[in-house]
Each structure stands twice: as C-alpha cells, then as structure tokens.
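Troubleshooting log. The previous structure file for this entry was overwritten by mistake, so regenerating from the original sequence record. Sequence copied from the archived sheet and checked twice against the printout by T.R.
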Amino acid sequence: MTDQSLAGRRFGSYEVLEELGSGGMGKVYRAKNVTLERLVALKTLAPHLSADQGFVQRFLKEARVAARLNHPNIVQTYDFGCVEGVYYLAMEYVDGHSLRTYLKRGRFSERDALQVIRYAVRALAVAHEAGIVHRDIKPDNLMLTTKGELKVVDLGIAKRLDEEAGSGLTQTGQAVGTPQYISPEQIRSLKDIDARADIYSLGATMYHLVTGHPPFKGSSGALVMTMHLTHPLPDPRRYEPGLSEGLCRVLRKMMAKEREERYQDVYALDNDLYRLQMGELPEAQEPTTSGIETMVESHVPTPPGARPSSLPGGSHTPTTPRTAGRTRSGAPGPDVPPLTPRGETRALTPRPEPRPLTQYSDARPTTSRPEGPSTAPPPSTGSPSSATTQAFREEDLHFVEVELAKHIGPLARVLVKKAAKTASNLVALGGALAENIPGEDGRRAFRSAIRARAK
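Regenerated output below.
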C-alpha cells in the first residue's frame, strides 16, 4: 500500500473517517471499528518504516506492553497489526485538545498547572512501574478531554532511532525527543534512558504551562538542544514574577542537567507537588552542578500574552460546588495525598477543601476539530543544498567536527555528517554549520577556522 491517505476507505476492520495529522512516523486518522462500533485514533506507520523489520519488531513489542497499561490518565491501546503491508495501532479516541492548543490562548495559572501535572505524574507512575519510559513528554502529548480529564498520549510507542538531527529531532538510543523538552541524556544518546528523562521533560512542559514560553528558544532544534546541555535554566519569574519560590525550586530540580540531582522517581516529585498545592515549601534540594539563575529581576515586566488569570484563555474561574479530595473533573486536588510506590495513600491531617478544576470543559479552544498530538518534525536547520557535492577527506571532517564541538558540544558529529552530504566544498560546509552556533562572535570564529583549513 502506498503512502496515500486512507480517509474514506476501509482498512481491515476499520472504517477510516478522516485524517487528523501526519508526520515522519506516519499518519493519524479518526476511524470506527465496524464490529464494535467504537471510535478510535488509528495510527499507521509510514511505508519505509513498515518495510524496516527491525523497527517493526520494536514497534510491535512496545505496542504489546502499552496495551497492558490500564489507567484513566493513559490513552488505551485497543489493537495493533498489519493490513496490506501497513502496520497500524488503534488507540482510544480522545474527544478533547492537547495542552499545546490551550497554550495558544495563554498560560496556565500555577494552581491549574499543578493539578494538570499531577494527572500526568499518575500516568507516568503506572508506565514506569511497567518498565516504560515515554521519552517524548510535551504539551502535544498531554490532552485534556471535554470532561476535563488529562490523557497521556503515545506511551510505549517505539521511536525511530536514526532521525536526522536537522529535522529538529535527535538520536536518543531508544527514543526521539522534541528539542524544547528533551533531556540532556537523550541529547547525548545515552543508552540507559530511564524515568528521570521523563521527569526532565515534564519539568520543561510545566515551565511552558506556567510561563507561556518553553525553557529555551533558538533558531534551530540543534541550538535549543545545545542550550539544554550548557545553558542555565532561565528563572520562570522573568516571565511571571508572581510565581511562587516553591514552584521555581521544583522546576529547577526537575530540570537539573545531571539526572542524579533530579527527582529520582515520580513519587518524590508528586510529594513536592502536593506540598505546593497545600501552600508549603517543597522538600527539594537545589541542584549543585547545574548553572541556575536564582535572582529575580523585579524590573522585568510581564511579557505580552502571559496572563495571570487561572484560565488559559484569561477568563475567571467559574464558581462551582467544592468537593473533598478530588475536583469535579477528577484532578488530584490538595486533599489527594501524594503517590507512594505501591499506590497506597498516606494518612492525612485535615486540610482545607481544594478548589475544583472545572474550567477546561467550559473554555474550549476555537479550533474546528480535536487536535491530536503533533508528529510533524520541527523546521529544519536549513543546511544549504547544492547540485554538486564533494567527498570530503576524513581528516577535514574531523577538524570541522572538533571546531564545531567547541561551540555546541556533542551535537557537532551528527550535524557535520548531515551537512557534508550536500555541501559543495569545505567553506560552504562551514557556512552551513555556523548557523547552529549561538552568537555572532562564535560564528565568525568558526568560519575563520574553516576558511584557514580550506586554503
């Protein structure tokens, strides 16, 4: 079967209703199981992936594991298999929108962000206990239903191992992450990726929720990933001066560059999130080896579009009856104690009743249909192409790699390898790679070194 759309066609036991999105992995459709008359999100692998038997075996293995996960905050896997040479995965159809969609309307309040993140923590606790690391936590993969329930998408789904760095994605041993939220160890292609990578990405996601901005911004995916490796975490109060010190402390610990200094599991994280909900300081110890900005620049105004209200869209929280322990939408409110490794709850001292999180079912985005997780890769770093390419000497490429690594670190090897495929000569190669270097002085020094080598 070709890569053409399946919309309006029959695919095995599914009637494909419409295409929801597409990307490097394949396409996503809204479909109906004609036997059970149940709506599903149908994901099909791209033809080149379906033809890769090694990838297919990993895909099927992890799909089997994901199908055994059963939790209200995890999108359920119903079925997987192959039809006419195309491998597919049928998953629970979520009637709602990703957190990315809500962020388009404005930032989340600290209170709402804490409740949403505790949803995700509970889902990740189940996955981590089953030996699954998500490896791509981001606002696109966290969805809120029309009932106000959060669903984690794409748990346990295998990721392509050899994506090009220039597409905005990076090789990560067993996963491909997204530059704005990826952990340092994934960037370094470490093989032993564990739950702490998800904690880092969840921290980057929470940072985005409460500030309206991702932690690091750059002109290319490679530049953003370099910042994750080398730059201190910008104080979120630069965007929102009203954020609590406790929340900033938790974010710094979640996003410590050395994973030994992060929360070691989601149970410790949930304990501090619970303390924040109760208005208490977290128990988190400050990271010691990562560069951290701790001074608040009180003169920095609130950036345009960053709203201090409790609604992503900026309106006031609707008045609703209060409930004990959980909000009306099921979110873990302050009276829901933190997780323990075996799922037991801890004895509670009487606490104030939580304020319910209900506005997400009332404040729906203006998009015409539910928006699923985006699988399209971020923009390319834009290495120039040429009709004539040159076979570079190994020693020249090594020189370029060493010079580039002085500015951007271990990403240099991947970028040099990619750019060398299209560059016409050494100077052109240096010019293309210089765009990944932050700062004009660094770019100028790099180009000079390459021109001297080419003489």
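The two ends are 51 Å apart (CA to CA). Archived copy saved in two places this time.
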